[in-house]
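Obj.: predict assembly geometry.
Materials: sequence records (below).
Method: joint structure prediction, all chains together.
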Amino acid sequence: MTNKYMYFVANWKMFGEPKAVNSLNRVIKFSKQRKSNKFKLIYCPPYTLLNLFSKKLKKTKIDIGAQNCHQDNNFGAFTGSINPQMLKSVGANYVILGHSENRSSGENDILINKKVKSSLNSNLKIIFCIGETLLQKNNKLTHKVLKNQIINGLKGIKEFNNVILAYEPVWSIGSGLIPTISDLKLNINYIKNIVKKNFKVKKLKVIYGGSVNPKNVSELNKIDIIDGFLVGSASQDSKKFIDIVQKTFI
Ligand code: PGA
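Observations (raw C-alpha cells):
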C-alpha cells in the first residue's frame, strides 16, 4: 500500500499489431473511473503503433512513450531510424533509453548519453534504464556497474525533472525472478545516492522493472523508496496491467 505518486510504464517491446489498440478500452475505462491523481500510466508500444495509440489516448490522462530513438535530433540519412522530434510529432511524451535489450545489441554509455541529451532537448521525458547482468551480480559488481551506467549515461545532465531512472536487473527481465527485498532496497538507495552525489539532485524518481506481475507487485511495493514499475510482458494484458496498478494502492 502506498500513498505516493507512482508511475506505471507499459513496455510492449516488439509486440502488437493495430488491432491491439482495442485492448486500451479497459485501461481507459479504469483510468477514468479512478479519477486518481496518484499515478501516471505510460504506454510504450512499438513505433508502428505510436500514432494510433496516441490518437486513442488523446482525451485521457494516459501518456505515450517510445521504446528507443536515434541519437541525432536532426533529420538525416539514417535508414530505419526515428529521432526524438519525430516521436514528439506522433504524440509521444516519453522515451525509454538504455534498455538492456538495446545495450546487449551494441548500445554503449556514450551512445545512450547522446540519446539522453537529444531526447531531453526535444522535451521528451526519459525513462533511463540501468541494471546488472547475472554474471556481474555473482561477481559482486552490481554497484560498480550501476555507478558507471549512471555517471556515463547521464553525463552533462543538470535537470532531473524529466528523468525517471528504471532499475532493471538484466537477470530479472522476462525470467520470473525478482531481487530480494533487501537487495532491491540496497540497490535503489545506492542509485539514489550516486545520482544525488554526482549530479547535485535533491529529488529523484526511481522505478523498478523486471518480471513485475500482479502476484509479486505487493511484495515489491513494500519498498517505499520505489516510485513505480516498468512492466514488460504483463503490460500487454490490460487486466494484468490494471491489477498491478490496483494492488499497488491496496
Ligand atoms: P518483463 O520486462 O516485465 O517482461 O520482465 C521488463 C522490461 O524489459 O522492461
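Conclusions so far: The mean pLDDT is 96.
To do: check interface contacts against the pulldown list.
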